[in-house]
Write a structure and sequence with these properties.
This protein is an alpha+beta fold. About 60% of the residues lie in helices and about 10% in strands. A hairpin with a 4-residue loop joins strand 2 and strand 3. Helix 5 (about 135-150) crosses helix 11.
Length: about 350
Amino acid sequence: MKTYSFHIHGMHCSSCVVLIESELKQVSGIQSVKANLSKQTLEVVGDFGEKSDMDIAQELSVYVKDRGYMFSTDRQKQTTVWSDFKIALPIALVFLFVFVLLQKLGIVNLITTGTVGYGTAVFIGIIASLSTCMAVVGGLVLSMSANFAKEGEKTKPQALFHIGRLISFFVLGGVIGALGSAFQLNTVGTFILSLIVGLVMFLLGLNLLDVFSWTKRVQPTLPKHISQRALEIKKINRILTPLLLGIATFFFPCGFTQSMQLYALSTGNFWSGALTMFFFALGTLPVLAVLSFTSARIHNKVISGIFFKSAGLVVIFFALFNIINSLVAIGLIPPLFNF
């Protein structure tokens, strides 16, 4: 057994760490795997005979290339495609104009002072499902669909997965909301949690812009071993596996999910927390359903620099909007928006 070190291309968040380690641990000849998000590196202990480091990197890349990752012996160079902003900025501005117009006309009420509306939860879910924060869930859906397709099951497992996901987000979101009431959060406590939600969203937006490499290191996440244990459920070979996997996704390290979980906690109410997490999961459903029922590749079909930058700008707007409204709700500043 020898220890090999490689550089990883395509990492974005803690979900990438869990997905890469989960995929490579199943490769024959590998004893242990450790991916590092902040350094963008991979450490592998295994027996590869007399193969060169470059050949090993190419061989291991095969197992994760469909997820958008690649290993090499050379350090990844951080490059920002600034030209993407020429298209991304107008797209974001058009979206925000429509948002403000709909709010002003009273057609929708996505965000009100001090609260996050269910419409916003759906929107954040859509962004999350298209972002690399959902790489683990997308990869999980693809591998599960492929495995059950070999056995002739093409729809039932996928349906159970999505049902389990929606139910678990509703129930566990309600539990988190109820826990918030047990803590008896006062106005200041609610303000602090709302402010944290806004800051988390702001960091997620910056990460989507792919301009600052340090944003990858400061994203909040659950302890990695919790996500890894949840991911191991896919090894269970029985009919309940898809349902259990859907439930397990509540614990995966997605910053968007965690920001919504924090907000659910701040509501201090079972039903508010449950509906917030349910509508968030509902927002992720269309893309994840396409992945599970068509075996489409999210990295090849959906993700692009322009989209991420557009989404990042919109997420930053919602984050700042939420932070400002939290300050208004506690009386620190006067209302800045008249909608």
